[in-house]
Amino acid sequence: MKSVVILFAGQLSAHAYDKIFDNSSAVEKTLAWAKKTSEDIVIFSTAYLSAPLSAISAEYGAEIVSKYAWTCGLLAEEISKICESHGAAYAVYSWADTPFLNEKLTSELIAQHEKYQSEYTFADGFPYGVAPEIIDAGCARILSALTSSGQNACNEKPVCRDSIFSIMKGDINSFEIETFISEKDYRLLRLNFEASSKINAVVCERLYEKALQTGVDICDIYAFCDLAEKSSDVIRSLPSFYNVQITGRYNHVAVYNPIAACEKFKKIACLPDMGIEQFRALVAQIADFSEEAVVSLSAWGEPLLHPLFWDFVRVVLAQKNLTVLIETDGLGVQSLQSNFEALTEEEKSRFYWIVLLDAVDPTLYSKIQNCGACDFDAAVNAVPLLEKYFDGRVYPQMTRMKANEPSLESFFRYWHDKGSPSKGELIIQKYDRMCGDLPDEKSADLSPLERNPCWHLRRDMVILADGSVPLCRDFGYDSIVGNVFEESVQSVWEKSAGILDSHLTKNYPERCRKCDEYYTFNF
Fold it and tell me: Minimal CA–CA distance to 211: which of 190, 229, 199, 198?
């Protein structure tokens, strides 16, 4: 059966062209895979990205289809057209920045697709980027008709990595779908083998070099993924979440906050406010080192109490690839409305809010937050006020513990409702004993049966108001590994790499052994 390979290159990062694989780029590696998969290769691109693709694509005999902008509807339409014009029974589809597409796995997918005459075939359980999707020509026509008729909500949405499946799942039972299941589930690694960002490009580069050094066969998909799982420098590439303390002050201190009970945290609360120029230099380093990241201003303290709070926000938003996160008690939100109104829509899309509520009634709220019951109304009212400006990016939060367990269902039902002030968004946060420094108020054990290397050590960097960086948020001021006001963010990050090696060998330091935050995940 004839096939055509379609590669999507409509939103490629500059890192897709970095020559980090034996002087080849992710795009070149993807095209080399495509050449071995089918004689016909078509690249979907945009006008502003077509130029760097032209010379590369010519070498592999690839055709370029360029559009001004790609939507899901247009993607489905063009896949259908390409199948028809090339006389292909099906399209083998992938993004063009996936350097580790596996030839053997691709062949097995194609064999399965042809054997069962399915409409859509995909691999599950592997990291993203090792297997393509296969779309039958008839299925492509149906998807095109669905989107063009306006029956599918995905029609006008920009193309993303899972666009094909997103179009289908609106009527998933109408399609004949075949799934190739991995012998081992690698999804918990949360690794994406694509060069869409600096972080992912670094992951790919390090894994490729590690495979060459160790002699692991890149064509052996299971050995390759196992190598990634066992390599600390692969699963811990660059920080994606920077939790920054700009002030140690609070309006009130909740019962799950250790600053009143533990010396190692009391010192953190007493640090002077961070200076705006220090923060400006820090954010410039973050943008250079990670390129894309979430920057929280709420590590320890109520950020809205900093007199220059909005200046800190503006510094983060000035970096186009950074997102700002604010965890707040909500009491100071009312005074910021004029600042919210001055934001552009693009800036609002890079802004997230978490409002600490913890209860559904003022009595329990005041007990947990150690404050007057009158603060409850201000906190609750902050949610619709924020939602007015930050649609879908406001999350009322309950820290689940014994004290509020009886009201958990009420909290969830109210805020999960699409008609609630948060339009259905909420967070149920796990109670953190701070490695045994706080009483065990956890109402349920959510830990996995088998311990994984800590997500926070892999992805987070906590930065205190004086620039100090603790090994982990739960370690307090007793484990400072460096200071970003005195040395680079990169050097401090690299200093703390060793502890993850001990996690991989299940040799945990004392505080890590007592911690059950290792499986929780920020960004």
Answer: 229
C-alpha to C-alpha distance for 161 and 129, rounded to whole angstroms: 10
E-only strand ranges, 421-513: 427-430, 460-463, 468-470, 480-483
Kindly report the backbone phi and psi dihedral angles of residue 423, in degrees, each rounded to the nearest multiple of 5, phi listed first.
Answer: 60, 35
Distance CA 490, CA 287 (A): 11
Indicate the burial class of 279 (C-beta count within 10 angstroms; 0-12, 13-18, 19 or more).
Answer: buried
Q: What is the 3-state secondary structure (H, E, C) of 136-198?
A: EHHHHHHHHHHHHCCCCCCCCCECCCCHHHHHHHHHHHHCCEEEEECCCCCHHHCCECCCCCH
Query: Which H, E and C letters describe 216-236, residue by residue?
Result: CCCCCHHHHHHHHHHCHHHHC
Q: What type of residue is 73?
A: G
The encoded tokens of residue 390 equal 């930050």
Token pair listed for 373: 């019951």
- Rounded to whole angstroms, what are the CA distances from 292 to 202, 226, 289, 316, 394? 13, 27, 9, 11, 21
pTM of the prediction? Answer: 0.93
Bridge partners for 94 per DSSP: 7
Q: Could you tell me the two tokens for 34? A: 């495509």
Return the ∠ at Cα 514 (arms to 511 and 517), rounded to 5°: 95
Residue with the two structure tokens 């996995």: 448
Distance between CA 164 and CA 136 in Å, rounded? 12
* pLDDT digits 0-9 by tens, 137-173: 999 999 988 887 766 677 888 999 999 999 888 788 8
* Distance between CA atoms of residues 98 and 116, nearest Å: 27
pLDDT tens-digit readout, 68-121: 899 999 999 999 999 999 999 999 999 999 999 999 999 999 999 999 999 999
The whole-angstrom separation of Cα 485 and Cα 112 is: 56
Residue type, 245: Q
Task: At 160, list the tokens.
Answer: 């993303």
